[in-house]
Design brief:
Structural class: mainly alpha
Shape: rod-shaped
Number of strands: 3
Largest sheet: 3 strands, antiparallel
Number of domains: 2
Strand content: 5-15%
Strand order of the largest sheet: 2-1-3
């Protein structure tokens, strides 16, 4: 969910209660980086205790798809360009 939502405070409930109330974590959520911003501006990673006015923040995972394939492609391209240049220079010097 990308839009913020507001719920009434329920005493003795953890962040997980409010996250589930919002539909739970999506596949794009970075659950390990979740944190709470307290009403006084303090930020904490303790998701167990939620107080009135707290904001729960679930940042998105940053995924760079196919990064490995781009690296392999670039390395192979440079390798074959180098081989081609070497072969061209060799044939030019041999004449």
């Amino acid at each position: 969910m990308k839009s913020p939502t507001t719920y009434s405070y329920v005493p003795d409930k953890s962040a997980k209660f409010y996250i589930n109330l919002s539909g739970g974590f999506t596949k794009y959520a970075d659950e390990d980086e979740a944190f709470v911003i307290r009403a006084n501006g303090e930020a904490t990673r303790k998701l167990g205790e939620i107080l009135p006015g707290d904001t729960i923040v679930i940042p998105p995972k940053i995924v760079i798809p196919y990064q490995t394939w781009y690296l392999v492609r670039d390395v192979l391209s440079l390798t074959f360009q180098g081989i081609s240049a070497s072969a061209l220079m060799y044939s030019a010097v041999k004449r």
